[in-house]
Amino acid sequence: MTQNPPRDERDFYERIYTLVEQVPWGKVATYGDIATLIGEEGCDARVVGHALGAMGARSATIPWQRIINRTGGISLTGHGQRERLEAEGVAFDEKGNAKLDAHHWGGPSEEWAREHGFKTLPRPADKPASAQLTLF
DNA sequence: GTGATGACGATAT
DNA sequence: TATATCGCCATCA
User: Fold this and answer.
1) Residue A2's pLDDT is what?
2) Which residues touch strand B (CB under 7 A)?
3) Residue whose C-alpha is closest to residue A16's, from A46, A5, A92
4) By the 8 A CB rule, do A55 and A13 touch?
5) Nucleotide with the nearest C1' to A53 CA
6) Nucleotides in chain C near protein beta carbons (<7 Å)
7) How far is Cα A2 from Cα A18, in angstroms, rounded to an integer?
8) Tell me, what's the pLDDT at A128?
9) Which nucleotide is nearest to A64 (CA to C1')?
10) Within a 13 Å sphere around the CA of A31, how many CA atoms are in the beta-carbon half?
11) How many CB atoms lie under 10 A from the CB of residue A126?
């Protein structure tokens, strides 16, 4: 208890997996978003990435490919992540970055989140009126 | 128990 | 806008 949170070690990862499974087809989420949805203090974008890298055999039932970094890029190039996302209809830029503006997941339903003890994103897609004029 | 690493994020320049 | 640096927290050696 001195520095051991009440959460179970592996159960913490299971929560991340459960949340990743909620990402609908054709949608993508960022590590930071997953961390925010978990709501735990010890949940950061980096931890989410490690959790996904520790799922092992579960990777066959978890849409880990829909989880990308904040810049929309994929760090695991070589595992066919981008290829799978494209098969789902996710578009990529010339730089290899997914179009988060068009496929960003706004998080699960509040009802589902409360039912499972998750939180919702503070702002699914805030668009400041001073930085979206050249979107197209 | 300490140090180093990592499928990242945000801010500063 | 793009690049560089720092920070965050958990896990492994």
Assistant:
1) 33
2) A 30-32, 44-50, 52-53, 55, 59, 64-65, 67, 69-71, 75-76, 81
3) A46
4) yes
5) B7
6) 1, 7-12
7) 29
8) 47
9) B7
10) 19
11) 7
What single-letter DSSP state applies at residue A63? Answer: -
The gap between A90 CA and C10 C1' (Å) is: 31
Nucleotides of B under 7 A from a protein CB: 6-10
Per-residue pLDDT of chain A (136 residues; tens, 9 = 90+): 433 344 455 678 999 999 999 999 999 999 999 999 998 878 899 999 999 988 888 999 999 999 999 999 998 887 889 999 999 999 998 888 999 988 999 899 999 999 999 999 875 444 444 444 444 4
Q: What is the DSSP letter of A28?
A: B
Q: Which nucleotide is nearest to A20 (CA to C1')?
A: B7
Q: What pLDDT score does A131 carry?
A: 46
Determine contact, residues A126/A44, Cβ cutoff 8 Å: no
Phi/psi of residue A39, each to 5°?
A: 80, -5
CA distance A132 to A120: 24
CA of A130 to C1' of B5 (A): 39
